[in-house]
Amino acid sequence: MMKRLIAVAFAALAFAAFGLAHAQQPIVIKFSHVVAENTPKGKGALKFKELAESRTKGRVKVEVYPNSTLFKDGEEMEALQLGSVQMLAPSVAKFGPLGVREFEVFDLPYIFDDFDDLHKVTEGPVGRALFQKLESKGITGLAYWDNGFKDFSANKPIRVPADYKGLKLRIQSSKVLGDEVKALGAIPQVMAFSEVYQALQTGVVDGTENPPSNLYTQKMHEVQKYLAMTDHGVIEYAVIVNKKFWDGLPADVRTLLEGAMKEATKYSNDIAKKENDDALEAVKKAGKTQILVLTPDEKAQMKKALLPVHKENDARVAPELIKQVYQATGFKP
Ligand code: LMR
Predict the structure, then answer these.
(1) Ligand 1 atom having least distance to the Cα of 209
(2) Global pTM?
(3) For atom 5 of ligand 1, which residue has the closest CA?
(4) Residue 122 to residue 235: CA distance in whole angstroms
């Protein structure tokens, strides 16, 4: 009898110890992304980690995996839906394969003149409506983070559409971007971000489009002789989480994380422009890439070639949303 009592007491103790250890386990958020740490997104992710961990007093641990070390483009969305990763911040140009092509509105050439235009959309009803579309996919949108305006690069001078003829250009997985490249007489090639440097180096593709920050931190300027300041579109991110995971968090923890995300968003968006300006300076300084500043006439030629992409995609992407974006930014098609 005594032996049995002792055994039961031991079992109860072991159970209590297990429960205590379990209760003290932090909630882990794996945050995977594909760019370097010294970029607007890389720094934003680290800021979120710092704020989330300190505000929840260690109840949450954020593990940031930069530079495609955990998942590459294409894999990461599926991993988020399966719950193998909890948080991502993909470029909105990568939502098409998920079946949410409405985000491609951001890829329409010249739709934003500057960051103010962009924020009228991300911080307004269109931004919220787009996040709504993710819910049925098991994804919750938390915030929009900026990178910056894209410029084309290649190994030959590219000033006007005729210069692009026949070039193979790497793009993200967006049909609008495919049509943009075709409108220039070039050939689009969808490829994961992590593979672009090598593809440029080995000549698998001839060129690509990037904000300076991505070009520089992936060292693409070392394998691209010309960078044309086309500023024809943006790279914008949606910070997204697995909905089931997010809804299942203790309410007080979720509130703290929402606060941390709000502050990390402000931080990341505040530094985005300067990060890109600094990266462009660094590209110039490295001396391997010639920066091509387009004349007003060259710019007009690029616009003329690229603007038809709006009409071609209007019906497929989301006519109503596009109209709202035009109204918000004052863009005239
Ligand atoms: C790209 O694939 O070019 C970008 O989406 C990478 C990024 O996350 O900025």
Answers:
(1) 3
(2) 0.93
(3) 91
(4) 12
